[in-house]
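WARN no homologs supplied; continuing
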Amino acid sequence: MNQTNDPSDIVEIGCLEAIEALYAYLDGELDDPQAIASVEHHLGHCRSCYSRTEMERALSERMRRLAGSHAPEGLQTRLRELLDKF
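OK structure emitted
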């Protein structure tokens, strides 16, 4: 997972920076090995961010599986409303 083996390459980041990079990280869009190492290092030490990451992974996987099926209109409306809040 960690793209660098040298601990001195890891830049310590906080929760805000980790969450800001989370979606790019999960989608494989981070191409900077140092940024990847920093996110992974943070996730390895922060239970809250790690839990959020796991929830986002599970949600993304579930959405991918459901992408081919048609959800009832009421559910689609509720999901749109929830997503608009974020």
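The chain has one domain: 7-85.
OK
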